[in-house]
Every structure is written in structure tokens, then in C-alpha cells.
Amino acid sequence: MKEGVSQNFSMGWPLVKSLLWALLLFVQIHEHRACIEEERTGLLELKAFLKSHTNYTKPLLPTWVYETKGECCSWERINCSTTTGHVINLTLSNINEEQTSSYLKGTWFLNVSLLHPFKELRILDLSNNGISGWLGNEELVNLSNLEVLNLSGNRLNGSLPFKGKHSYHLF
Ligand SMILES: *[C@@H]1O[C@H](CO)[C@@H](O)[C@H](O)[C@H]1NC(C)=O
Ligand SMILES: *[C@@H]1O[C@H](CO)[C@@H](O)[C@H](O)[C@H]1NC(C)=O
Ligand SMILES: *[C@@H]1O[C@H](CO)[C@@H](O)[C@H](O)[C@H]1NC(C)=O
Ligand SMILES: *[C@@H]1O[C@H](CO)[C@@H](O)[C@H](O)[C@H]1NC(C)=O
Ligand SMILES: *[C@@H]1O[C@H](CO)[C@@H](O)[C@H](O)[C@H]1NC(C)=O
Ligand SMILES: *[C@@H]1O[C@H](CO)[C@@H](O)[C@H](O)[C@H]1NC(C)=O
Ligand SMILES: *[C@@H]1O[C@H](CO)[C@@H](O)[C@H](O)[C@H]1NC(C)=O
């Protein structure tokens, strides 16, 4: 009896070992995918700002919720780097009211200070929001990794509150 048990144990050991490795790997991948806390908080602040400054009629960014601590990379309109975990794609097009005839009547200013946490952004799409200008840009936002900046469908005058390599494509 005892021998059988120990034999089972020794046969099972490689399996247990590989399961442990799998678990370790999973935890590491999961850790890499986990959202940077400063950025998660920043996204929630951005959502709160957008909610109170735009006329969006549908629920705004419903997947951006406080409960999911350590998570934001799975939220809509976000992509994180698989290596650093930083948010690299923030696509906030069409988050103001629906495009109706009154679409361009409203005036609102985006507080760009709320973009300070996102230091590794490569894609920033703020298109089709009728943005009239910027708030809170006493200090320019440093987006040194920016590759694509889409500001079409806004009412901006060309002054940009971002500094960086200035090699990104502006739309
Ligand atoms: C980026 O995020 C969107 C929405 O969450 C998702 O559909 C898409 O597959 C992601 N892209 C990459 C490259 O991960
Ligand atoms: C950026 O995110 C938007 C919205 O999730 C998605 O449609 C787009 O494909 C993404 N771009 C890249 C290059 O991953
Ligand atoms: C929202 O609608 C109100 C009333 O029509 C308008 O005064 C305001 O400027 C609009 N805001 C935006 C962001 O379009
Ligand atoms: C910029 O935004 C507009 C409107 O959302 C879209 O049609 C266009 O494809 C975008 N361009 C790029 C390069 O993302
Ligand atoms: C453009 O708009 C910004 C505010 O968003 C303002 O500070 C600046 O003076 C404007 N520039 C021109 C040329 O109108
Ligand atoms: C813009 O956002 C920053 C960061 O949350 C805040 O400190 C500042 O008071 C805001 N400025 C305006 C004009 O709303
Ligand atoms: C902008 O940020 C990058 C890294 O995030 C840093 O290397 C660079 O010095 C910063 N540039 C300025 C002008 O602050």
C-alpha cells in the first residue's frame, strides 16, 4: 500500500512541478498585463472629467470602473504594452454627444493635465469631439513616444499642449 502511494507520488511529482511552472508563468504574464496603478487612477479621473464636461447620452466608458483594481488593460479604448504594461493606445474618439446638427454648437475644453500619467502613449485619438481648446496646460504634456495624434473633428487652432519628439503623425 505504502509503496503504491509513494510510487504515485513520484510519478505525480513531474506533473506537480510543471503545474507549478505553469502557475508561475501565468502569474508573471498576469503581472506584466496588470495595469500601472497611476494610469488606472488617471483613467478614472479622465472619465470623471469627460462625464461632467461632455454631452454624451449613452453610458460613457462603462468598462472603466473602480472595482477592477490592478486592471485597466482590458478596458475599452485602451491597449497596454505587453512588455511594460503601460497604456500605449488611448482612443477617445466620438465621446462627446452624437453627431447631430447641434454637435458643433457646444464649447468645451479638455484638461490635458489629465494626460500626464500616460507617459508611454503611442496613439492618442481625440477625434470627433468638437474640442474647442485646452485647459490645464501650464506645463506641456511630455508624450515622447507618440506616433499618432488624431485631432480631426475638433475646433482647435493648431496650438498643441504636447511636447515630444514631434515626429508623430498629426491628423
Ligand atoms: C486594443 O484594444 C481593443 C479594445 O479593447 C481590442 O479590441 C484590440 O484587440 C486591442 N489591440 C491589441 C493590439 O491588443
Ligand atoms: C487603438 O485602440 C482602438 C480602440 O480600441 C482600436 O480600434 C485600434 O485598432 C487600436 N490601434 C492599434 C494600433 O492597436
Ligand atoms: C452641452 O449642451 C449644452 C446645452 O445645449 C451646451 O451649452 C454645452 O456647451 C454642450 N457641451 C458640449 C461639450 O458640447
Ligand atoms: C482620425 O479620426 C478620424 C475620425 O474618427 C478617422 O476617420 C481617421 O481614420 C483617423 N485617422 C487615423 C490615422 O487614425
Ligand atoms: C489657440 O488656443 C489657445 C487655447 O486653447 C490659446 O491660448 C491660443 O492663444 C490660441 N492661438 C491662436 C493663434 O488663436
Ligand atoms: C486639470 O486637471 C488637473 C489634474 O487633475 C487639476 O489639478 C487641475 O486643477 C485641472 N485644471 C482645470 C482648469 O480644470
Ligand atoms: C520626456 O519623457 C521622457 C521619458 O518618458 C524623458 O526621457 C525626457 O527627458 C522627457 N522630456 C522632457 C523635455 O521632459
Physical arrangement of strands within the biggest beta sheet:
1-2-4-7-9
Q: What order do the helices and strands follow?
A: HHEEEEEEEEE
CATH superfamily of the largest domain: Ribonuclease Inhibitor
Determine the N-to-C terminus distance.
Answer: 75 Å
Total beta strand runs: 9
Query: What's the number of domains?
Result: 2
Largest sheet geometry: 5 strands, mixed
Strand content: 15-25%
Question: What features would you describe in this structure?
Answer:
The protein has helices spanning 2-33, 37-53; strands spanning 78-80, 87-91, 109-111, 123-125, 133-135, 141-142, 148-150, 162-163, 169-170. The protein has 171 residues and is of the alpha/beta class. It has 2 domains: 1-33; 36-170, Ribonuclease Inhibitor (Leucine-rich repeat, LRR (right-handed beta-alpha superhelix)), CATH 3.80.10. It has a 5-stranded mixed sheet, with no helix packed on it. Strands 3-5 form a two-stranded parallel sheet. Strand 1 and strand 2 (87-91) form a beta hairpin. The longest helix is centred in the first third of the chain and has 32 residues, at 2-33. The radius of gyration is 23 Å and the shape is elongated. Residues 133-134, 157, 159 line the site of one 2-acetamido-2-deoxy-beta-D-glucopyranose (NAG).
